[in-house]
Amino acid sequence: MKGIARLTGTVKHYDWGGTQLIPFLLQEDNKKQKPFAEYWLGVHPLADGIVEDETGGRQILKDIINNNKEQALGEKVNKQFGDLPYLLKAMDVKDMLSIQVHPSKKAAEEEFAKENAAGIPLTAGNRNYKDANHKPELAMALSDFWLLHGFKPEAQLLKIFEQVKEISGLKALFQPGGYETLYSRVMTMPQEEVDKILHPLVSRIVPLYKEGKLDRSQEDFWAARAALTYSGNGHIDRGIFSVYLFNVLHLKKGQAIFQDAGIPHAYLEGPNVEIMANSDNVLRGGLTTKHIDSKELLKHVKFEATKYEILKGEWHGLERIYLTKAPDFQLSSFELDPGEKAGFTAGTTEILLLTEGRVTVSDGSAKIELAPGKPSAVVFAGQKAELEAHTQSAVYRATVPVHTGE
Ligand SMILES: [Zn+2]
Questions:
Q1: What is the pTM of this model?
Q2: Residues 6, 11, 12: CA angle, nearest 5 degrees
Q3: 161 CA to centre of ligand 1 in angstroms
Q4: Domains of the chain
Q5: What is the mean pLDDT of residues 127-145?
Q6: What is the DSSP string of 245-299?
Q7: Which among 204, 193, 223 has a CA at the least distance from the CA of 96?
Q8: Using an 8 Å Cβ cutoff, are 104 and 300 in contact?
Q9: Catalytic amino acids?
């Protein structure tokens, strides 16, 4: 096992994906305008990273780790997780994604065991829990990035009920019932009732959207877009309620948001780099063609106003680190000028993803060039790596947090 190696990931062509960002990173021509939604780097069974050596030999990253666990992961991560605990993605959101929530570690363990005991195959369409892990996530904007994140504070919700007259009847659920009564009701009411409430709203805002009279800071903009994207077969998607009940966030380039267990969210638009615990546990409640299970989703939602923080990262020399409380991952970035150098020592199996420019990664003897169209890089535990930029460059580093005193 070498200290550094080339790493190739897997493209996911989900139909909500954009057509430019990931084809650019991979230098693939996309004349057919196929959606390139996500590019996964890690050891997820649905997207095994491939390591390539100088002679063209190929190995699965997971096998390299399994054959040299302590050496590859480092003693601490091997002891704590026994595997690579994170998954890194480049994401390009053109059409909004499903309203979703992720379970806590404890809930995931219990529910995964329950579905196993019930004999529901892992690949079944109605299977909710794909593994026994939680899935906290951090998304960092590569340019303007819009998302729904958690419940609005009470005062803002009341204002919405006043401004959007078609849904003002929901106020009677919120007061005195609170977030739980309100959200449980809109997520479980019969479809005819959803249609009855939302039809007048959609009829009013869709023409405004089409005339370009709404902007992205308005809930109406996203609700109209959702209606156009997801309300096929004469029904209106109940996910539209969430657009009004959740915080609409706008992240600018370099800003990030952490999504912990229980925070309902949905990505609306924009390119980002996302890192998460290595899990696929997603409970969905609308704005999607995938499996929806509102009851299961409601079991995991934290029914309270969501206090959120838009992370700007902390600078440690040339490295901008986005700290979260998740033990499974840490994301940082290096934005380097031509000729600029930066270095680090890998704490575990680390992955480097370049989004612009050209950078050489060196372990002292071997060198790997990162550039659009070239593989990414993996750096194994304990290895010192030096980055040198040849043009204006941006490189993302996926690792685990360093806990001192252990
Ligand atoms: Zn999510």
A1: 0.94
A2: 150
A3: 27
A4: 8-48+83-147+251-287 (2.60.120.10)
A5: 94
A6: HEEEEEEPTT-EEEE-TT--EEEEEEEEEEEEES----EE-SSSSS---HHHHHH
A7: 223
A8: yes
A9: 284
Task: Quote the CA–CA distance of 255 and 312 in Å, as a whole number.
Answer: 5
Region 145-160 average pLDDT: 98
CA of 145 relative to ligand 1 center, distance in Å = 15
Residue 344 binned pLDDT confidence (cut-offs 50, 70, 90): very high
pLDDT tens for 202-258 read 999 999 999 999 999 999 999 999 999 886 678 999 999 999 999 999 999 999 999
Give the DSSP letter string of 370-396: E-TTS-EEEE-TT-EEEEEESSSEEEE
Provide the residues around ligand 1 (an ion) whose CB is within 5 A: 100
Tell me how far the alpha carbon of residue 101 lies from the centroid of ligand 1, in angstroms: 6
CB of 307 closer than 8 Å to CB of 116: no
CA of 268 to the centre of ligand 1 (A): 12
pLDDT at position 404:
39
Averaged pLDDT for residues 135-144? 97
What's the DSSP call for residue 98? Answer: P
How many whole angstroms from 257 Cα to the centroid of ligand 1? 11
